[in-house]
Design goal:
Oligomer: single chain
Shape: flat
InterPro entries: Flag_FlgI
GO cellular component, one term: outer membrane-bounded periplasmic space
Number of domains: 3
Subunit structure: The basal body constitutes a major portion of the flagellar organelle and consists of four rings (L,P,S, and M) mounted on a central rod.
Function: Assembles around the rod to form the L-ring and probably protects the motor/basal body from shearing forces during rotation.
Strand order of the largest sheet: 4-5-6-11-8-7
Largest sheet: 6 strands, antiparallel, barrel
Structural class: alpha+beta
GO molecular function: structural molecule activity
């Protein structure tokens, strides 16, 4: 309750588009939540295939000749002769098929695949992906995909208007690929475990090694972990340990994480994320804006009755200049609440706070890394 109260008090000072990470949010985390196993990474698969059954929204064979070539080759493999006339049906589309092969995947299990149009097809809705082999970076086939394509977007077109929502040239086949080959490496053949931090940090890596060594000393009688750098922690396998059971025990150990001080700014959305350890040296800030409004109100002048004059337009321009802001505030951020309260007391919008943070960084008073997105 005490930590939740501190978090609520810190967020109460924030403007809607300013987000802060308070020290109360920096809680202890399990190793499985902050690090991943190097031997347990995904592998990317890719393939080329055809989608059939489209309602006239497929590739045009003149603009996409590879679609016709692929269709003829497929029919020949099925024993159907393709010599003769040329087909103009637009119910077929060439697509690139991609998928992620999860770690420790066994033959016979299913994975989702994504399909993306390669030609000039306008929609893949209602189509069916026919048998497509998926290969890895080594050129070996690891899965075969086939199934109905699910497209979230749609388009409706008439003679004078067109309505499109989402993307209709890409979709997914849930559970559409069957794994046919397992990865050559086996988990239990490893002699050590390599833990990779998702957010590299030397302090966190040392703490992971210390926590693992504390567990190993009590369980196996000696240390087994060593922090190689800011991202990798190597754990040697004890001779009497089962590697699967060892990893299950290690990934549930709790470690106190640490992160460098950062301020992340997204100028497109006006979002500001301030880390918990951000500090600002004493600095005076003044922010003001000058608004110039130009209004055109032309007047129509009519000639006198029975005169030979012509109607004329007399331009009239009104220019108004308004200057706002200009308040000077003293910022001193010994903690996060003081910093955010000082920024909000200046009375500027988030885009103004972004400019102020950039100026404070240029002045050398922002003791954190400023990341612009």
């Amino acid at each position: 309750m005490k930590m939740l109260f501190r978090l609520f008090v810190a967020l109460a000072f924030l403007s809607p588009n300013v987000v802060a990470v308070t020290p109360a949010a920096a809680m202890n985390s399990r190793i499985k939540d902050i690090a991943s196993l190097q031997a347990g990474r995904d592998n990317q698969l890719i393939g080329y295939g055809l989608i059939v059954g489209l309602q006239g929204s497929g590739d045009g064979f003149r603009a996409s000749p590879f679609t016709e070539q692929s269709m003829r080759a497929m029919l020949q493999n099925l024993g159907i002769s393709t010599q003769g006339g040329q087909s103009n049906a637009k119910n077929t589309a060439a697509v690139m098929v991609t998928a992620n092969l999860p770690p420790f995947a066994s033959p016979g299990s299913r994975i989702d695949v994504s399909v993306s149009s390669l030609g000039d097809a306008t929609s893949l809705r209602g189509g069916t992906l026919i048998m497509t082999s998926l290969s890895g970076a080594d050129g070996q086939i690891y899965a075969v995909a086939q199934g109905s394509v699910v497209v979230s977007g749609f388009n409706a077109q008439g003679q004078a208007a067109t309505v499109t929502e989402g993307v209709t040239t890409a979709g997914r086949v849930p559970g559409g690929a069957i794994i046919e080959r397992e990865l050559p490496s086996r988990f239990k053949d490893s002699v050590n475990l390599v833990l990779q931090l998702r957010n590299p940090d030397f302090s966190t890596a040392i703490r992971i090694a210390d926590v693992v060594n504390g567990y190993a000393s009590a369980r196996f009688g000696g240390p087994v972990a060593e922090a190689k750098d800011a991202q990798e922690v190597i754990v040697q396998k004890p001779r009497t340990a089962d590697l699967t059971r060892l990893m299950a025990d290690l990934e549930n150990l709790v470690v106190e994480t640490d992160t460098p001080a950062k301020v992340v700014v997204n100028e497109r959305t006006g979002t500001i994320v301030i880390g918990a350890d951000v500090r600002v040296s004493p600095v005076a800030v003044s922010y003001g804006t000058l608004t110039v409004q130009v209004t055109e109100t032309p007047q129509i002048i009519q000639p006198e009755p029975f005169s030979r004059g012509v109607t004329a337009v007399q331009p009239q321009t009104d220019i108004a200049a308004q200057k706002t802001g200009g308040k000077v505030a003293l910022l001193n951020g010994p903690d996060l609440r003081t910093l955010v309260a000082g920024l909000n007391n200046i009375g500027v919008k988030p885009d103004g706070i972004i400019a102020i943070l950039q100026g404070i960084k240029s002045a050398g008073a922002l003791q954190a890394e400023l990341v612009l997105q």
